[in-house]
């Protein structure tokens, strides 16, 4: 409604007070509303700025979700190595207590890897879906604001449009007539404008 009234500055002010990437897209389009090429470039630049900002926390979740199981598997291997070391030292007289330390290390490492990886993987996909939704809103907002601004520009009258001129403006201006007194009295004044066919001198 603000744009329909032609108040672009007020619309930009509303975008400044509204947080989020969608408002930034609309603001960029409004600031370059009179230049379609600059408008498209500004929207593209805002997208390149906002998308990495939204995805900066996803990298940490992605790393945790993929490295935690590997670290857990590494801990399991280390625990198994400890068990075999105890078996080598004890020989045939290996007790359960000596094996328990390596088993404990292996199981604890696997559990810790799963505890870290499972929530990280879930949060990663949750925030990824939220970002995809915001990206769709950004694309929709960009398309709508470009359409609205183009529609307003098409509806605005232009001075070069002959249809928008009034009849008085489009009618040709008659040639000026200068009254010159002739030497004889009682004669018609002489006009310096173009004569019509019915006024031609015989």
Describe this protein's structure.
- The chain has 202 residues and is mainly α.
- It contains six helices and no strands.
- The longest helix has 60 residues, at 96-155.
- The radius of gyration is 41 Å and the shape is rod-shaped.
For this entry, give a set of tags:
mainly alpha
Helical proportion? 55-70%
Report the count of strand segments: 0
Beta-strand residue percentage: under 5%
What is the rounded distance between the termini?
A: 68 Å
Mean pLDDT across every amino acid position: 75
Number of helices in the DSSP assignment: 6
SS-based structural class?
mainly alpha
Please give the largest β-sheet. none
Radius of gyration: 41 Å
- Spell the H/E element sequence: HHHHHH
Shape: rod-shaped
In terms of per-residue confidence, which ranges show pLDDT below 50 for 5 or more consecutive residues? 158-202
Question: What's the layout of helices and strands?
Answer:
Elements: H1 8-17, H2 21-31, H3 36-55, H4 58-90, H5 96-155, H6 167-170
């Amino acid at each position: 409604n603000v744009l329909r009234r032609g108040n672009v500055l007020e619309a930009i002010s509303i975008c400044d007070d509204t947080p989020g990437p969608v408002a930034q897209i609309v603001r960029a389009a409004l600031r370059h509303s009179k230049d379609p090429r600059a408008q498209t470039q500004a929207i593209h630049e805002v997208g390149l700025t906002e998308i990495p900002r939204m995805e900066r926390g996803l990298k940490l979740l992605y790393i945790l979700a993929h490295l935690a199981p590997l670290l857990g598997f590494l801990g399991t291997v280390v625990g198994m190595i400890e068990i075999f070391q105890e078996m080598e030292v004890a020989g045939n007289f290996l007790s359960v207590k000596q094996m328990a330390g390596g088993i404990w290390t292996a199981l604890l490492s696997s559990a810790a890897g799963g505890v870290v990886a499972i929530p990280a993987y879930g949060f990663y996909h949750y925030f990824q879906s939220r970002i995809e939704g915001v990206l769709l809103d950004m694309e929709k907002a960009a398309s709508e604001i470009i359409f609205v601004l183009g529609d307003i520009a098409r509806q605005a009258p232009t001075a070069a449009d002959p249809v928008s001129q009034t009849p008085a403006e489009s009618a040709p201006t008659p040639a000026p007539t200068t009254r010159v007194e002739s030497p004889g009295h009682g004669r018609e004044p002489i006009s310096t404008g173009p004569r019509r066919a019915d006024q031609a001198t015989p």
